[in-house]
Design goal:
about 425 residues, 7-stranded mixed β-sheet, extended, Rossmann fold, single chain, AAA+_ATPase, hydrolase, P-loop_NTPase, ATP hydrolysis activity
Length: about 425
């Protein structure tokens, strides 16, 4: 046997050896059918009515094409309208073998046409050796489901919802902002990303301590500092849908609760310019009563009740984002932790943020002789990223564009000096 094995290894090509081994394993497996366990996975749990979608079936449908290797010769391929890439699917009555932790699990898509219906019925058959029963139920099937959830999150098209009348209208969020393209201080970016990641992985902690699984952010700073872009970057990073809630369209506390109750989990609810909204009424007993009834506008108490009251438990894995240009105008009751957990100051552009803009708009990732001069001017002037970005788009040549930025910032600095001199020399009235 040793001589025979040596001769086979030396004389028979590797691909042919693998083919022979596969055929032999398949041949002998027929005589060991009594040791095989088969699980039937229907598309719906109730096959007669078609109700109760079976998540495991759909998980296998998406998971198995990712396990198909080059030796698999029968598979379906297509291009769907809402997909950017080609999609693959398992063809019926052909086996797909998946290896997990050293064990083999065999899948087959069984296609049958029942007598009382012209439509085919699809069922996945998962087979494995009876010794692997515990591994299959406790580790392999959960692995398939986890992989499916990760694939869904990766492929998800982020939506943005706006409220019209009494319902949410949706469209695709096409804003291209990411954390890589935001003109923010790198340390601030890192702290935001770390906070988001920490929030996502703490589901069990929130449950254990009795807190709703949500997080509140306050974005404040002058107009044009990137508050909307930061919201889009968070949505694209987390693959969370965005609900843009205009408080001027909310007529009462009950209307506010109804609007938020109709949002989905894993979403971002954005309330912009919270300090400018005139519909929020004082927190008095009379205004609370009117807010739930026929009065105009809702109360601050109604908003607070959603943020950390009994209504805050409606839904989970939610992020609340409030934006304002004037933080000092916001009622202090909104600012405490548990309501607005992280306060993010989006201020005027500085040198580190300008490097990001130079990379985005001009393709300059290294050093440039004018960078230091621009950094010095940015320390003396108050200019937003939006204004600088608009100037960067005026020239195609990077050097000419930077020269224009230097000229613009120099003029701003000179004007600031004149204004300062005028203020100090003019007597007050």
């Amino acid at each position: 046997m040793m001589l025979l094995r040596t001769a086979i290894n030396d004389m028979v090509p590797r691909q042919l050896r693998n083919l022979i081994t596969t055929k032999l394993e398949s041949f002998f497996a027929k005589f060991q059918s009594g040791n095989q366990v088969s699980l039937k996975i229907d598309r719906s749990w109730d096959r007669t009515s078609g109700k109760n979608r079976n998540e495991l079936y759909h998980a296998a449908h998406e998971y198995l094409p990712s396990r198909i290797n080059r030796t698999y010769k029968t598979l379906k391929v297509g291009k769907l309208e809402d997909c950017k890439n080609l999609v693959l699917a398992v063809d019926g009555n052909h086996e797909v073998v998946d290896e997990f932790e050293g064990s083999k699990f065999t899948w087959m898509l069984d296609e049958k046409t029942e007598k009382d219906s012209s439509k085919p019925k699809y069922t996945f058959i998962l087979s494995f050796h009876e010794k692997q029963r515990e591994k299959a139920m406790e580790r392999y099937i959960p692995h398939v489901l986890r992989t499916y959830e990760a694939m869904k999150a990766e492929q998800k098209i982020v939506k943005i919802y706006s409220r019209s009348c009494d319902y949410w209208e949706q469209s695709e969020l096409t804003h291209p902002a990411t954390f890589d393209t935001l003109a923010l201080d790198p340390e601030l970016k890192t702290s935001i990303i770390d906070d988001l990641d920490r929030f996502l992985r703490r589901k069990e902690l929130y449950k254990r301590v009795g807190k709703p699984w949500k997080r509140g952010y306050l974005l404040y700073g002058p107009p044009g500092t990137g508050k909307s872009s930061l919201v889009a970057a968070i949505a694209n990073y987390l693959k969370f849908d965005v609900y843009d809630l205009e408080l001027n369209s909310v007529f009462s506390n009950s209307d506010l609760m109804r609007a938020i109750r109709n949002t989905s989990n894993r979403s971002i609810i954005v309330i912009e310019d919270i300090d400018c909204n005139k519909e929020v009424q004082p927190r008095s007993p009379k205004s609370d009563k009117d807010g739930f009834g026929k009065g105009k506008g809702f109360t601050l108490s109604g908003l607070l009740n959603y943020m950390d009251g009994l209504w805050s438990s409606c839904g989970e894995e939610r992020i609340m984002v409030f934006t304002t240009n004037h933080k000092e105008r916001i009622d202090g009751a909104l600012l405490r932790p548990g309501r607005m957990d992280m306060h993010i100051n989006l201020s005027f552009l500085k040198g580190k943020g300008f490097r990001v803009l130079a990379s985005n708009y001009l393709g300059l990732d290294g050093h440039h002789p004018l960078f230091q001069q621009i950094d010095d001017l940015l320390e003396k002037t108050e200019v937003t990223p939006a204004v600088v970005a608009e100037h960067l788009m005026r020239y195609e040549d990077p050097h000419h564009s930077l020269e224009a930025i230097v000229k613009f910032l120099t003029q701003m600095d000179a004007q600031n000096q004149l204004d300062l001199q005028f203020t100090t020399t003019t007597p007050s009235t």
